[in-house]
Inverse folding.
C-alpha cells in the first residue's frame, strides 16, 4: 500500500465529521449523494429524506496555516417531497439520487438535484443587505398611516446577518417512466442529460416542458428485457459525446451528431469474461454502478461490484487497468446475493482536476464495507485502505491503513472477512477539485479528510 | 449474516464451492453444484416476491434476478430430461410459460431427488459458505420472512376460469405432483399473471369480476414492473416453486387466522383439507363449478378475489 513519506504519497488525516452521533440511524438521514462544486468551496449532500445540505469552506485563516478551512453548514433545504403515483398505487421516494453543480456565472450558485422522477434546478443565493427606511412601512413591516408621513426619505441598504436562500428555479418533471439514476451537465453548460433504467433524455436548462429522448433501450416486449442502463455521463470536453453503462458490464459511447436517437453506439467497451472466475453471479457483479470520465476526457473509470476499471477511450476491448476493491468477497457472493449486498451501488471518483492536468499524480477512490474506502494510485500502482470512523477522529493524526485478511491466519491489526460489517457501507465519496480534501459518506455521517500539510 | 458456519480449515478448497463454477460433471461436487444452483434459484424466487410494497422495486435488481432464474432454467433444460420445447401459436408470446410446462419433468426430477431440508442440513458443513445452515433449516431465508407471514397457507393454486385452459391443465399437472399449499401471494401473482397475459397491453386497468380491494395487492404485484414484466416472466418459476416442498413444507400457520376456518396448528398439510372445506362452504355462492371435498383445490377467480379481499381487509 501507499508508503509513508516521499514523493506523491499522501498522508490522510481526519478533519471533520458531520451528522448524528448515535448508532440508531434515522432512515431520512441516510446520505445518498455527495458532490463538491467546481471551486471546491461548497460541498453538497443529499439524503433519503429529500433534503440537501450544503457546507461551505471557511476562508483560510492566515494564522492557521497548518490546515485548510473547515466546512460549515451553509444552507439546508428540502429539495424533494415524497409523492404518490396514483396510477400505479406506489410511492415515489423523495430520496436525492444525484446532485450536480453548475459552474458559477454570477453571485448565485446553481445545482441540479434529482430523485427517481423529477429533476430540479436550485438557486442558492446570499442576502447580506436589506433595505431600510421605507416611507410607508415601519421597520417591522406594519404599514404606517399615510396621514402621519410628513417627510420623505430614500430607503437605503444596510448590512444584515447573512441569509442563504435556496429557491427552485426550474422543475423538470414527467419525462421518466423509470427511475432516474444519473444526471450530467454538458460542457456547453446549457444542456444536460438525465438517465433512467431504459432511457436517456436531453434537456435544455431553460426549458422544462420538453426534453429530447436520445437513448431508448426499452424492448417492444418487456418480457425480453435483460439489460438496463445504470449510469450516464457527458464527456468533459466534447459536448456531443456521452457514455452510458449497463447492468451487463458494457459501456457505450455515443455521438449525438450521428443521429437524433443514439441507439447505435459509436464505441462499445466490454471486457471479455475471465472463464476461471465464472460463477452464477458473474453477470450481477459485472453490472456497472458508476462511470466517470477523467478530467482530461481521455480515460473513463467504471465501478462494478468487486473492481474499478480504467478505460482508454481509444481501446474498446479491455480496460487499461483493473483494481480489485475487495476481492475477498468473491467467495461470499452467494451470501451477499441473499442479503442483497451484491446489489449495492458503489460510486468512484478521480482526484482533483488540477493535479491531473499537470499529471502530478492520478488517484482513484471508491468505497467498500465496514466503513472502509480504498484509493489506487495509477502511477505507482499502489493502493491503500482507510476507515471512516469516529474512533480515528483526532485532527492531524495520520489515518492508519487497514487490511482485510481473506483467509488463513489473521495477522495482528488485520480484520477478517467474517467480521466485516456489511451494514456499514461507503457508497459515496468525493474529491475536492483542487486540494487534497476528500468527503466520504458513511450511512448517515459525512467525513472530511485532508492531507497532512507540513 | 456472513460467517455463521464453522471455521474452515482448508482454505484452498474454499473458492471451489461458491465463487467459482463447479462443473456439474465433477463427481462428488456435482451434488454441491446442483445444491448451490437450487439454493440460488430459491433465493431468487423469494427476492422477486419480497419487495417493499410501497415503492416500485428496482428494475435493475429485478432484471438481474430474472436473468439468474432464466439462466438456471436454461441450464436445467440442457441437462436434458425434457421433452422438446415448442411455442404454441395460441399462447401469448411468452417463451417462459412454455418453458415451465416443459420444464416440469426436470423439476419433478429434482424434487424427487433427496433435496429435502434434512439433506441440506447434512451437507451444510461443506456448503457453509453458500448460505448459513440455519437459514436452510428454518426455511425462512432471512431476507424474506414476510412471504410466509403475509400470505396465509391456502390450498394449492386455484385453477382459474375455463378460459385459461392450458394454464389450468398445467396447474393440474403440478397439483398431481405436489399437493403442498403455497402462499396466497404466489397464488395472487399467478392470477394477476394470467390476467396480465391475457391483457398484455393494460396494466391494472382491466379487471375480471372481483372485488376492488383484492385487486390492490394483486395489481401491485402485477405492476411491480412496468409492462407486467416481472409477473409474466416469473410465472414460469412459480409452478416450480409449488413443486418445492423445501420452501413451504413447514410454514407456520399459527399466525394465519382465516375467519371462515378454524385456526389450525401443526403442519400445513394437516390444515389444508380443513381450510379448503370451510372455504368452499363460504364461497359456495360464488363458485361456478361444482366443487367436492375431494378436489379442494379448484376454485375460480371470484373466489380468489374474495380470499384476497379478506386478506387485505384483515
Amino acid at each position: 500500500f501507499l508508503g509513508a513519506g516521499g514523493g506523491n504519497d499522501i498522508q490522510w488525516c481526519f478533519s471533520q465529521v458531520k451528522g448524528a452521533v448515535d448508532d440508531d440511524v434515522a432512515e431520512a438521514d441516510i446520505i445518498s449523494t455527495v458532490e463538491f462544486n467546481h471551486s471546491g468551496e461548497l460541498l453538497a449532500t443529499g439524503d433519503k429524506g429529500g433534503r440537501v445540505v450544503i457546507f461551505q469552506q471557511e476562508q483560510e485563516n492566515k494564522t492557521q496555516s497548518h490546515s485548510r478551512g473547515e466546512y460549515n453548514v451553509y444552507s439546508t433545504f428540502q429539495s424533494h417531497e415524497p409523492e404518490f403515483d396514483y396510477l400505479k398505487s406506489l410511492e415515489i421516494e423523495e430520496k436525492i439520487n444525484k446532485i450536480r453543480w453548475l459552474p458559477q456565472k454570477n453571485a448565485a450558485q446553481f445545482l441540479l438535484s434529482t430523485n427517481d422522477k423529477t429533476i430540479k434546478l436550485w438557486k442558492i443565493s446570499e442576502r447580506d443587505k436589506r433595505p431600510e427606511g421605507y416611507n410607508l412601512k415601519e421597520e417591522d413591516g406594519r404599514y404606517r398611516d399615510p396621514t402621519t408621513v410628513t417627510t420623505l426619505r430614500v430607503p437605503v441598504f444596510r448590512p444584515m446577518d447573512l441569509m442563504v436562500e435556496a429557491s427552485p428555479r426550474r422543475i423538470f418533471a414527467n419525462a421518466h417512466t423509470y427511475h432516474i439514476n444519473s444526471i450530467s451537465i454538458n460542457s456547453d453548460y446549457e444542456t444536460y442529460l438525465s438517465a433512467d433504467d431504459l432511457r436517456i433524455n436531453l434537456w435544455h436548462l431553460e426549458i422544462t416542458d420538453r426534453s429530447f429522448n436520445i437513448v431508448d433501450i426499452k424492448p417492444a416486449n418487456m418480457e425480453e428485457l435483460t439489460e438496463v442502463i445504470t449510469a450516464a455521463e457527458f464527456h468533459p470536453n466534447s459536448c456531443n459525446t456521452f457514455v452510458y453503462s449497463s447492468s451487463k458490464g458494457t459501456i457505450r459511447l455515443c455521438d449525438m451528431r450521428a443521429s437524433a436517437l443514439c441507439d447505435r453506439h459509436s464505441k462499445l467497451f466490454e471486457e471479455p469474461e475471465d472463464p476461471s472466475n465464472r460463477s452464477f453471479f458473474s453477470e450481477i457483479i459485472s453490472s456497472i454502478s458508476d462511470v466517470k470520465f477523467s478530467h482530461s476526457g481521455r480515460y473513463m473509470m467504471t465501478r462494478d461490484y468487486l473492481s474499478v476499471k480504467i478505460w482508454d477511450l481509444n481501446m474498446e476491448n479491455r480496460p487499461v487497468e483493473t483494481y480489485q476493491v475487495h476481492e475477498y468477497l468473491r467467495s461470499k457472493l452467494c451470501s451477499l446475493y441473499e442479503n442483497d449486498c451484491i446489489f449495492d451501488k458503489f460510486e468512484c471518483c478521480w482526484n482533483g482536476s488540477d493535479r491531473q492536468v499537470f499529471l502530478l499524480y492520478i488517484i482513484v477512490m471508491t468505497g467498500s464495507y465496514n466503513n472502509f474506502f480504498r484509493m489506487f494510485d495509477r502511477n505507482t500502482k499502489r493502493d491503500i485502505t482507510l476507515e471512516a470512523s469516529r474512533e480515528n477522529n483526532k485532527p492531524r493524526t495520520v489515518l492508519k491503513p487497514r487490511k482485510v485478511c481473506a483467509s488463513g491466519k489473521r495477522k495482528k491489526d488485520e480484520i477478517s472477512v467474517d467480521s466485516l460489517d456489511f451494514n456499514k457501507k461507503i457508497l459515496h465519496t468525493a474529491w475536492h477539485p483542487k486540494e487534497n480534501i476528500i468527503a466520504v459518506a458513511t450511512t448517515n455521517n459525512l467525513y472530511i479528510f485532508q492531507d497532512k500539510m507540513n | 449474516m456472513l460467517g455463521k458456519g464453522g471455521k474452515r480449515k482448508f482454505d484452498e478448497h474454499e473458492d471451489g464451492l461458491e465463487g467459482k463454477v463447479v462443473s456439474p460433471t465433477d463427481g462428488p461436487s456435482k451434488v454441491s453444484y446442483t445444491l448451490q444452483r437450487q439454493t440460488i434459484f430459491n433465493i431468487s424466487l423469494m427476492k422477486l416476491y419480497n419487495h417493499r410494497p410501497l415503492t416500485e422495486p428496482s428494475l435493475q435488481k429485478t432484471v438481474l434476478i430474472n436473468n439468474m432464474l432464466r439462466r438456471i432454467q436454461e441450464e436445467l433444460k440442457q441437462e436434458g430430461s425434457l421433452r422438446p420445447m415448442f411455442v404454441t401459436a395460441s399462447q401469448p408470446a411468452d417463451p417462459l410459460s412454455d418453458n415451465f410446462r416443459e420444464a416440469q419433468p426436470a423439476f419433478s426430477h429434482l424434487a424427487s431427488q433427496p433435496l429435502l431440508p434434512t439433506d441440506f442440513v447434512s451437507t451444510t458443513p461443506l456448503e457453509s459458505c453458500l448460505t448459513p445452515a440455519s437459514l436452510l433449516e428454518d426455511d425462512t431465508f432471512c431476507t424474506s420472512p414476510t412471504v410466509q407471514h403475509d400470505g396465509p397457507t391456502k390450498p394449492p393454486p386455484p385453477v382459474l376460469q375455463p378460459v385459461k385452459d392450458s394454464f389450468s391443465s398445467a396447474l393440474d399437472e403440478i397439483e398431481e405432483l405436489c399437493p403442498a399449499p403455497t402462499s396466497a401471494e404466489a397464488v395472487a401473482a399467478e392470477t394477476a399473471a394470467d390476467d396480465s397475459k391475457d391483457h398484455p397491453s393494460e396494466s391494472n386497468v382491466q379487471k375480471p369480476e372481483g372485488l376492488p380491494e383484492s385487486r390492490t395487492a394483486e395489481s401491485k404485484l402485477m405492476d411491480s414492473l412496468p409492462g407486467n414484466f416481472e409477473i409474466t416472466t416469473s410465472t414460469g418459476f412459480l409452478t416450480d416453486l409449488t413443486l418445492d416442498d423445501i420452501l413451504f413444507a413447514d410454514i407456520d400457520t399459527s399466525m394465519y387466522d382465516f375467519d371462515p376456518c378454524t385456526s389450525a396448528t401443526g403442519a400445513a398439510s394437516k390444515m389444508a383439507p380443513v381450510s379448503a372445506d370451510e372455504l368452499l362452504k363460504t364461497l359456495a355462492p360464488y363458485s361456478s363449478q361444482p366443487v367436492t371435498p375431494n378436489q379442494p383445490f379448484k376454485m375460480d377467480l371470484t373466489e380468489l378475489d374474495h380470499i384476497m379481499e379478506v386478506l387485505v381487509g384483515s
Observations:
- Residues 29-83 of chain B form one domain.
- Chain B touches chain A through 57 residues (CB under 8 Å).
- Chain B has a mean pLDDT of 52.
- Chain B has 14 helices and two strands.
